[in-house]
User: What shape does this take?
Amino acid sequence: MASRILVPMDDSKLAGQALEYALDNFSDADVTVIHVVGVPSSLMGEAAGLALEDNIEEAAAERAEPAFERAREIANERDREIDTIVGVGHPARNIVGRAENYDTIVLGAHGADRSRMVRRFLVGNVAETVSKRAPIPVIIVR
Amino acid sequence: MVEVLLAIGIIASIFVGFNIGGSSTGIAWGPPVGAGIVIKTTAAGLMTFFVFLGGWTVGRNVMDTLSGGIITTELTLSAGVAVLFFIGLGILAANIFGVPVPTSMTTVGAIAGLGLATDSLNYATVTEILSYWIVTPFVGFWIGGIIGRYIYPKVNQRVQIEKSDGPLLTIHRTGAVPKPTFGPNTTWSELSGTAVVLILGCYMAFSAGASNVPNAAAPLVGGVGGVKPNVAILIATLAIGVGGFTIARRTMESVGSELSNIPLLAALFVMFTASTITTLLSWIGIPISLVLATVMTIVGIGWGRATRPVTVREAITRDTGDPTIVSGAITAEGIEGKSAAPIGGDEPEEMVDAGDLFNPRAIIKYLSMWIIGPSISTILAYGFFLFIPGVA
Assistant: This one.
């Protein structure tokens, strides 16, 4: 039984469903939600804006807060607690890089605004990349 | 027949200009509008005027390159109209898929495709343009990097851009001559800061005109049945202006929101650098994308800042809280208790690695995205003019 689960979350609906799945199906596991900020975008505004902050760590945490709030809400409904991690830069790389500390990754099949080609080109399909490269089992929620 | 062709050409040119107006107004005025320094209508008005100025003056050099420099023969009206359609196609793709397509490069790509197909490509000019295109992103990146690493942190300590409540200036009409005085909360520094923001917006609009008016105008100025350069410039400017007043309301938010992630002060550095690069290259007749110059400067500033090691001293002092926010626009007073750390200090243990924001692989991938549009336009135009030879 997996005891440490990593749930990457972006702003998409499916990310919330992935967390719900993880909480419902692994009732005694430690669930950690990771949210990546400063993701590459068409003008690199997000990444540059973060880089220019005086305290990058603090700013990154602040930007991740809405996602974590949503995650905590989902967890609260189930009387569960979650850990949170903030990553910066490329989502898949962040997730795969941390995978070895966990037993399973649970994530949505696709992220927010998947229709945007810029995002698809720069960020790629996170679920696909993670399932290909992660050294641990990956559950993809559809 | 020529009249119909010209009419189609003008419509295509207006479509191109309209969309250019939307995107470049967003880039030039997104930050000032986002900061509440100007309203969208004022921005669009200033945009139109300075685009015209840029197109009318420096833009002519670029027009010469587009209509007679890239290909050895003069660009005919029918070929020009076809080229406009390829530019339009690129813009359409940009709108539909949300991919950034640098219009100036797409234009050169389409004309070069024409030159290849009709065996009239001026290789010397194209090589020159290509070499500038290869060098410019590096220059933008490098200047941005220097700003981000050395200049921005220092300036950021001394300068706060802040908008106070109430109008900037109020007009007193009691005397014989209406006399402007400061608004209720206005200070000299706010006034000068606002002026800097406005001037840079106008400068960027000027460079947008210099680099972008020719894209919509040059294809119309072809041989028999074409319009005069001045008329073409006016048509292009009007179309850009209409775009600035209409769809730019949206792009000032979408593009502006990308840019508004960046602090206004950094955005001003970006605007100055990108406008200068674009204006200088346009001056010597090299078509260059304002957007490309802008993004490379942004990437450079972000990279420069992200890879700047944080010293222990800064790590300690930065916890003393935010510097006092001085009401007023740009205040040139040193703020105590917060000093720029020297470069190369020890990096404290940090959970977040800012270097991940701009790792080399991501930057290369990002850059390659900008090459796709112009390459596709070259290939499409080449195929088109090869199989439909009558057009050129």
Notes: The CA atoms of residues 280 and 286 of chain B lie 9 Å apart. The radius of gyration of chain B is 23 Å.
